[in-house]
Amino acid sequence: MKKLTTSVLLVVLSSSFAVVKAQSGDTIRTQKIEEVVVTGALGIKKKADAVTNAQQVVGAKELNQASATNAVQSLTGKVSGLVINQTNSSVDSNYRIVLRGNRSVTSNNQALVVIDNVISSSNILAQLPPESIENVNVIKGMQGSALYGQQGANGVIIVTTKKGTKNEKIQFNLTSSVEIQQAFMFPKIQTRYGKGVQDQSFSNVDYGGTNYVPWENTSWGPAYDNPAIGGTMVASGLPQADGSYIYEKYAPVKDHFSKFFKKGIVFQNGLTVNAGGNDSYAFLSLNRLDNEFVVDGDNLKQNSILLKAGKKFGNLRVDARFNYISRIIDQTNSGLYDDLLQLPSSNDVRKYRNSGIDGYATMYSTNPYWTIEHERSKAVKDYLNGTLSLQYDFSKHINLTYTGSITMGSTNYNNYNDGYFSTTPYQNTGTPYLEGHLLDEINPNSQVTAYYFNHKYTNRDYYGDLMLNFDYDLTDNLNLKFNLGNNIQDYYNTASSIGGTGLLVPGWYDFRNVVNSVLPQDTATQLDGYTMDNYLIRSRIIAGFANLDLAWKDYLFFNGTFRIEKSSVLSTNYNNENHNKAYPYYSAGLSFIPTKAFPGFGGNVLNYMKIAPSFTRVGNTSAVAAYATYDRGVIPTGYPFNSLQSYLYNTQPTSRDIKPEFMNTIDLNLQMGFLNDRITLEASAYKTVTNDLITFSNVSSTSGLFRIQDNIGKTELKGYEIELGLTPIKTSSVVWNLRGSISQFKSKVLELAPGIDEVVLNSPFTSPGIGTIYAIKGTDYPVIKGTTYVRDPNGNIVVDEDGTPLINSALSNLGKVTPDYVLNFNTSLKVKGFTLSASMDFRKGGHFISATKRQLGFTGGLQESASFDRTQGYVIPNSVQLVNGQYVPNSTPVGTADYSGVTNFFASGNFLNVGENNVVDATAFKIREISLSYDVPKSVLSSTFVNSLTFGVYARNPFFKYADNNANYADPETANTTGNGAGIALTGQYPSVKTYGFNVKVTF
């Protein structure tokens, strides 16, 4: 990693010298920094000079260079300070989008997404085809997002979709791409020992008395070079339906995990139509995406329609937008990857494709091919948005605008499992251990409960902005722009779930076919991963806002914003009165351009400089659920309430006096351009202090309450970003651009309520010592806590007289989750009609808990469990014993000095449940995109109806490099949540996927 970082820096430095030499060949004019006009909050447009906060615009060319299937994917690695984590690799992936780190402990820390001036969501952004987007403005500075109030507390991603041109000639654009997906970065496992278990009751005399067992799921068997069995053909797995065995060579199969995954294929086709005139335009985008995923049977079909049109009628301007997205998703339970991870390296899983459960390679896990066929989730998702924008010009100085939007969505999930009950007898099969038994008597995986559940979710959202706009030159040198407006948001969400266990008629997935109904208040988490959601929620936000821009000449700018806002989630009712306080949010920022204020400033080298300080105060209430401040009953579950209709008093209420978390941010931005912007430098430093932190705290048991949600703490976020842009070569035939950045942020808990030192953010394991995500007072967060071994003053593990390591009873801080810093690097080289582009990033530091590593410890697949002779036992490396008050080197194997001692250690809680064994370094280098395209010369197309034609090849995620102690256990981005508790990668999350493709773009 150090060599890689050094190489990147050398390229940047050498390129900067090349810039100076290339000046004489500069024949291409690039738009200057100050000439760029960007769309900010509420659609207010400004020149870059007047922008008082940090932001970065990503254009259509960058978004589409590698034919990404969604806009979130295409943004990854392209913006400093923007960290996008793909938390799972599936046909319907999830993302976590964070700008400049965490400001809150329990409230939402993800960036706000605004599409065409209407608040949307990251889920919708992940469904937008990049080809329909004109640009994305990532507002990193809080001052630029303060007009959105509490919803803009974490920065804003403003997406502007394309619209028609003024050309009256209709223009058609066709895009088509086909790509191959391949799963990669599979866990590295030991290949010294194979299938079996060190237990004589399982021994099979047919294999020379070795500990090989055909139906085992662990790799505690004999060595592959054992002369009694190594390299021979052995019976493997459970007997097949006819009583015969599948035979495999007792030798490691190369990359055996990868055998299960197929080559996925993705087709994406799009058509856009542009038309317009001097006072009107029309734009239509049609897109079809077909994704046949790397897991057999998993697929996604998506249709997207975007229609935009506008026309001016005298003083009235009318713009309309219609967007419809339909998605059909069919996928199996990703928990099958856990079953696959248990497979010893001698097994080729493909040989068991048709073996079902009874004849699988092991009796201790479910055949993943059976899971694919019999346990599935099928979802139909529809998204519909209609937006109307009106602008009436009273004069050239005053106009009134209105943007109103209605969004409707529905999701219909059907989850089912066909179930299975084995009746296979093992009489006379030649399997001593199974003789006289049914499979279901000894293998719990042979009894699978059938179930069917249906979940329906709907939403109806209204968003409206009414804004009066003023633009006056107060003097020859002073310009005033003022916006005064009102915002109303109304969200209406419903959910209903039905279902149960047992199916009367196999294959009929309908509630009428369910044997045992699940009550609405019960949970179905253990069956299909979904709770029995049944609710109706309505919430509202009403706000007034004002925006002031002052410009002195062309070098000094001021921006001030104010928003006063009421949110229904903070309303409560007591003493027969409704209480809902309005809260103010405000910001102020300056932009000063010394290169324009002082003629000759910077000489012939520094052509542009901007200094922009700002202050922002906003709030965040996303941790407070709707109706939380009201007195509510809770429907009880468990004995004796299973069949009773009752309720209990809510023992986890929210304080009636709860208020927003207030975030005060100081931001300083610097922007410079050298040698006519051939070299650009942008730097930002910021600090956010969050007061009145919202979280739960325990209360006295005498109150009858368990805990209460209230304002109880304080956090601090500090960070910086530095971005360097270079154009080493810029001629009529060759243009080479480079952009590199470094960003760093640290979030720290400063205060919590009296008696509270930490807050649990994520605890998915039965034993918290395995790994739990916390926010701890006085430290950076989020952090991992888990159990550790007792160590001497020199850091050596202390063992007892049996060689077993001693374990500390208290949990210890095992490291923070977030990276120490992030390096981004992007480049594009255009040589005549050819364009080569690449995007990559390097995230240094951070940690995560890998359940895969823990699983491999149990199965004997860990490399460290086979780095010695297992028959001699295992001595903890560099361990010590306490003898007569002195620590002395230890030479005693764990437990016993034989194979059983090794197995009993690695497959027991002495190893598996010790958190420090499960912690992995999250450092990673990733090449995100590489693309090569060719634009056919205009001269070749001049005699045809084609205006432009481009061919391209590309790769996404072609190369990853993880830290040395991460033997590909999991992608560090992977997490079992998109919330604040990220940092735990479970075994049900697939490995990463890389893509190679070809595309063509035609305009006529």
TrEMBL record:
**Pfam families named in the record:** Plug, TonB_dep_Rec_b-barrel
Concerning NCBIfam families, the annotation shows: OMP_RagA_SusC
Annotated TonB-dependent receptor-like beta-barrel domain residues: 337-839
* Primary location class: membrane
Q: How does it sit in the membrane?
A: Multi-pass membrane protein
Which Gene3D superfamilies does this entry report, sorted A to Z? TonB-dependent receptor, beta-barrel domain, TonB-dependent receptor, plug domain
Location of this chain's protein in the cell: Cell outer membrane
Tell me the first and last residues of the signal peptide.
1-18
The domain of life for this entry's organism is Bacteria
The family assignment reads:
Belongs to the TonB-dependent receptor family.
User: The TonB-dependent receptor plug domain covers which part of the protein?
Assistant: 50-156
One GO cellular component assignment for this chain's record is: cell outer membrane
Q: Which InterPro entries match?
A: Beta-barrel_TonB (IPR000531), Beta-barrel_TonB_sf (IPR036942), Plug_dom (IPR012910), Plug_dom_sf (IPR037066), TonB-dep_OMP_SusC/RagA (IPR023996), TonB-dep_rcpt-like (IPR039426)
Provide the alphabetized UniProt keywords: Cell outer membrane, Membrane, Signal, TonB box, Transmembrane, Transmembrane beta strand, Transport
Protein name as annotated:
TonB-linked outer membrane protein, SusC/RagA family
Give the species: Chryseobacterium oranimense
